[in-house]
Amino acid sequence: MALHLQLHPGSLLTSGSWTYRVQFIVGQGAFGTVAKCTRTADMKTVAIKIMKTEGIYMKQAKEEVAALKRVVLLDPERSNIVRWYEEFIDRGHFCLVFEHLDRSLLDYMKERYFQPMPLKYIRLIVQQLASTLDHFKAAKIIHADLKLENVMLVNHQQEPFRVKVIDFGLSNLVSGVVVGSYIQTRPYRSPEVILGLPLTEAIDMWSLGCIAAFLYLGNMLFFGMSEYDMIRDIMGIQGKPPDSIDSTTCAWKLKTPMRYRKETGMMATMMRWSNLTSLDDLLHFHVSSLNSCHDVVGRARNKPVPSSLITMEAQSAALPCLMSFALVLHG
User: Fold this and answer.
1) What pLDDT, in 10s, does the model give residues 236-292?
2) Over 186-204, what HEC string results?
3) Average pLDDT in the chain
4) For strand 151-155 and strand 159-165, is the pairing parallel, antiparallel, or unpaired?
5) Of 145, 167, 204, 229, which is the active-site residue?
6) Of 51, 71, 99, which residue constitutes the final position of a domain?
7) Of the residues 40, 66, 99, the one at which a domain ends
8) Do the annotations mark residue 49 as ligand-binding?
9) Is 229 an active-site residue?
10) pTM of the shown model
């Protein structure tokens, strides 16, 4: 049996309830294939995620279904999450059917040649995602893989900058997340995950801050080829972790690049794409909107954290550095 189900325009996928006709293949990745399809009974357009048959991907599909059964209890419109319709198996391939959405924020940024977005549009996106995290927190859920690729524009022509969150393959209840789990894509990975510290919903807030920074800068705020590079990059902007973090209780301690190379055989990345030394340096970006930038930094220093998110911030062992930036855009 082929790992990828061989599909082309016109191919049919059948569940116990519906038949779907493939319009075209949206993309193909490590997990499998995503196809834009038409539900033949009512001509509704949907997106179907067709998993590979390899055991690890079938296991991941079942885990995603378990996560979807938790988030399906949330209102998909108010919580800004993709609407999930059904799952089925066709020719041995696990298939997940979702509402069809426009395109990801990453695709949108590519179309803009990664030019920074105006603050007024970033604010609209962050407000929606902050609301999503508020709903997740109430349900005690961690998404664990928030990134540009997993935030979709719903219908940009009709509803500009309306977004929804997708891909719950790594999602779990807070109580079910194991310290040391390999979660979050590296440029969006929080210090708690890197340092092997206890995890809370705050790790998603960190990722939201990284998303906001990317839209604002047109590039990753933190980027490294390893977790060592990442923590050095984060410390370059935020300083050392709090003294309350005991390096003997986590699988980490800061090493010099020379010692790191000697112990691991890996070369540390010595260059960064920007010279940012603090979030205040964001003032040097968007020069044409300087008043708005001063407003952002000023409000980030003075604005109180919304009560709905205050526990999330307080529980974070590493105190996410992008909290104030994301929250000020939220308000």
Assistant:
1) 888 777 766 655 555 555 677 787 777 777 777 766 666 778 777 777 665 444 345
2) HHHCCHHHHHCCCCCCHHH
3) 83
4) antiparallel
5) 145
6) 99
7) 99
8) yes
9) no
10) 0.86
